[in-house]
Amino acid sequence: MHLNQFSRILGVISFFWAGLASAAPVVHAIQLQRSYPALVGREHNNIVELKVTAEEEGIEIRSLRFDLRGTDDIQDIASTTLFVGGPNGELDTKWKIGTGTSPADRIIFQRNISLKKGDNWFWVSCKLKPTASLLHYIDLECTQIETTEGNIKPQDQMPGRKIRIGYALCQQGQGGTHTYRIPAITRAKDGSLLAFYDMRHNRTKDLQEDIDIGMSKSTDGGQTWTNPRPIMDRGAWGGLPEDQNGISDPGVIVDPRTGRIFVWAVWMYGKPGKHQWNGDGSEAGFEVGKAAQMLLTTSKDHGETWSGLKNVTRDLKKEEWVLFAPAPQNGITLTNGTLVMPVQGRNADGESFSTIMSSRNHGRRWHVGNPTGAVSSECQAVELTDGRIMLNMRSSREARHMRRAVMVTSDLGATWSEHPTHHKALVEPICNGSTIRIHYQQNGQSKTALLFANPNSVERREKHTIKVSFDDGDTWPESHHYLLDANTGFGYPSLVQIDDEHVGIVFEGSRSHIMFMKLTVEELVSGNLPK
Q: CA nearest 340: which of 368, 372, 306, 298?
């Protein structure tokens, strides 16, 4: 080949590669929708996260276009706001680009925004109407970003992801209360939903602190709730201040025949700086000021009014036990009408245990079973199809079990044996969990299944999940796992069957101190839920 010909070919190749290099995008973007709910009652719900990367200085955004056509009902949305994110991508509401208050399938934010070289973060946040259905999803996608370098479409890192709507039942600072924790939910005889929890007035810390037991009520299946109000408050009993009269960890049961509601909780008197689960925070015997006490309040009108506080410690606690307390959960009624309440404590050696207490006379007298033998604490009881009671328990941190303890009894807790899944099936990060039996109709036939909820992780209290079992808890197929909230929260779920077609759950998730979510029985048992 002639030298001049070779030079011309080489020049064409060089021009070609230079053209490719110049065509490389100088700005590109990705978008994500996280796995957590958007909550009614929360001012800002982070729906879409955008990362726009500029490869050089001087690039500007002219507009951003979003599509909501995958949303079940855009009328659920009160407003949509675009924010500039913080330096690490976190939501920062100080820098608002714009707000749209007219729901539409397409929203365009027109604003000149200078991009720094490198990563630039943006968030789209929605505020929901009080009428937003808790059975609906929100789906928002950024379809175009107009820049001075041309239009780009962000790459969707989580295609198909939708955001379920929930309810912010208790938020930090609400009503002047610093922290809400330890929820338990039940259904009253008239169909009302009642949620109970700690109202920790001054800070997050457990007992001993200024803590009351609070309650919220829903009469419309969880769509709306009353504001938190205390139903168990020791005040300045015995001349000591309220921060030495704390009440914590509510456990609740409803007698389906009489409609009477029982709520127990733990009361500590004195002992500042102590904790009932550690050292001498609670002691053997019955003396107030030494042993933590078990208090009871009841309601005969579906939670509208409550009785005075009754100390039932001597009726239930063994004298040698260091502690006796309710498991902060809901109790159950067996098919024969016996009431069963999960409970916990510390034995004479200070080692934690779980068991049940039961009543065959509508709560006039309660019989406490023997400890299961597992080193455990917070627990939930469920009746198996053969009539036995299964107790699903939080494992002991000291024992390093990262699987749930599961025991069964056929004699109301006099004796216990291991369930086949004991320390084998259900993972946990050492946290409270919830188990209930649901009943439903499918193809004209009566069906039943177990539901279980907890943080589905051994690392931390994250991946808050509901699981379904169709074989009395022997297996929990992954096809029927529903992720409620992937992010970190304190956990502590409590499940309830709202009616023949719906299930509710309260838990301490990442979006609010206590969140309520509602699901249909059909979507749970069919497995047709977003993962």
A: 368
pLDDT score, position 17 = 39
Q: Which domain holds residue 133?
A: 27-165
* Between 395 and 332, residue with greater pLDDT: 332
Quick one: 28 exposed, middle or buried, by C-beta within 10 A (0-12, 13-18, 19+)? Answer: middle
> Residue 480: inside a domain, yes or no?
no
In a domain, 265, yes or no: yes
**Beta-bridge partners for 155:** 30
Q: What is the pLDDT of residue 23?
A: 53
Total structural domains within the chain: 2
Q: Is the dihedral of CA 388, 197, 226, 254 positive or negative?
A: positive
Q: Are 111 and 54 found together in one domain? A: yes
Same domain (yes/no): 45, 184: no
Nearest CA to 325 among 250, 381, 271? Answer: 250
Report the distance separating Cα 494 and Cα 253, nearest Å: 13
Average pLDDT (393-414) is 89
Mark whether 123 and 190 lie in a shared domain.
no
The burial of 293, by beta-carbon neighbours within 10 Å (0-12 exposed, 13-18 middle, 19 or more buried), is given as buried
**Phi/psi class of residue 139: alpha, beta or left (left: φ > 0; alpha: ψ in -120 to 50)?**
beta
**209 plus 316 within the same structural domain:** yes
Residues 120 and 78 in one domain: yes
Residue 181 sits in the same domain as residue 326: yes
Q: Is residue 224 part of a domain?
A: yes
Instruction: Please tell me the distance from the alpha carbon of residue 378 to that of residue 330, in angstroms, as a whole number.
Output: 11
Task: Mark whether 234 and 302 lie in a shared domain.
Answer: yes
The verdict on 148 and 266 lying in the same domain is no
Segment 431-488, tens digit of pLDDT: 999 999 999 999 999 999 999 999 999 999 999 999 999 999 999 999 999 999 999 9
What residues contact 504, with CB distance under 8 A and at least 6 apart?
A: 185, 193, 221, 222, 495, 496, 497, 498, 516, 517, 518, 519
What pLDDT shows up at residue 86? 84
pLDDT tens per residue, range 220-268: 999 999 999 999 999 999 999 999 999 999 999 999 999 999 999 999 9
Question: Which among 283, 212, 278 is positioned nearest to 250, based on CA atoms?
Answer: 212
Largest CA distance in the chain: 109
Domain CATH number, residue 37: 2.60.40.1290
